[in-house]
Amino acid sequence: MGNLNVAVVGATGLADKIGKKGTVTDMTFYEVKEGSDSITLIEPSKYPDKLQSLFYATEMAEFCILVVDKIDSFLGETIVMVDSQKMDKGWIVLRNYIQPEQLTPLIAGTSLEHYEFVEENHVDMRLALIAMAKAENRKAGDGTCGSCPVDSHFNVKGVGTVVLGSVADGWFRKHDKMTVWPLGKQVTLKSIQKHDIDCDDGVKGDHVGLALRDIESDELDRGFVCSTDPGIKMSDSYHGKVQYNKYWKNAVKEGMMLHVGHWMQILPVRVVLAGADKDSEVTFELDGKMIHKSGDKGVLMYYDGGKLRVIGTITFP
Question: Which of 57, 64, 38, 35 is nearest to 194 (CA)?
Fold first, then answer.
């Protein structure tokens, strides 16, 4: 069973030509199925009004389609977000007679630099994406050591608590004991579904529905993490350097209120200590506990940043 999660960013009106519309929140999901293989297309439907929408869509995907119908500040911000997420596999679709040479300077030196320019042929694109999904052929290894951040959660009559999300790391199996972070509560994974098909395991990149025993839906929230990984950590502060994107002009300053995103969690951040230049170390206080593994990166955002609200990244210890 292969699956591919695709962020479709930039101009709208492409994902609905390739897949069937599904769940709509601050993202819109579109699905394509062929046998046991599937594609999940994720469109940030609340962007540019909500930067969070763009963060979540790119965070959940491993392949990106950038649709360009005009060159403006929102395109620039989208490129910076995709680059901050280190998404190095993708396509670029050009509209309105925009030429590749107009875009090349904007993506030079970013993770989009080697994206393929493709024609907007929806049938060919669907076939190519399905071929990529088939090639994924993800399989669980021995034991269990995986994490699934919660995107949404609800109660299903006769089933109980169900969470939806994409497996961010590793793998897990039906009947595993999982810990729900930040609660630290142990639950049992009753069943796993991928695109409404019952499965025995969930592997990194799979878009899954997990039925959980021993927890109620109203105990959960978006950004919580269901995990069998003993390496999960929680941090309410950060000390280190910021990896600024090349378009961000000035170092952050003490007293600024920022946001940091990782997996499906976005937390407010207060800058407690900062130096005069962008090479200085900083100290942040987080409004809550960030769930992560050692070495994971978080995307740093400044909602009041005007035309560019993505600052760069930090690396959690």
Answer: 38
275, 267 Cβ separation under 8 angstroms: no
Helical ranges in the chain per DSSP H: 15-18, 51-59, 73-84, 100-107, 122-136
Q: Name the domain count of the chain.
A: 3
> Where does the pLDDT of residue 142 fall: very low under 50, low under 70, confident under 90, or very high at 90 and above?
confident
Point out the domain boundary residue: 192, 227, 262: 227
Q: Which of 294, 239, 290, 240 is nearest to 266 (CA)?
A: 290
The residues, ordered by sequence, that sit 6+ positions from 214 with a Cβ below 8 Å of its Cβ are 185, 186, 187, 188
Are 133 and 106 spatial neighbours (Cβ–Cβ below 8 Å)?
A: no
Task: Return the pLDDT at 2.
Answer: 83
pLDDT at residue 137 greater than cutoff 80:
no
Structural domain that includes position 205: 147-227
CATH number of the structural domain spanning residue 270: 2.40.30.10
pLDDT of res. 139: 83
- Phi, psi angles (nearest 5°) of residue 34: -145, 105
Task: Answer whether 0.85 is exceeded by the pTM.
Answer: yes
Contact 194, 206 (CB under 8 A): yes
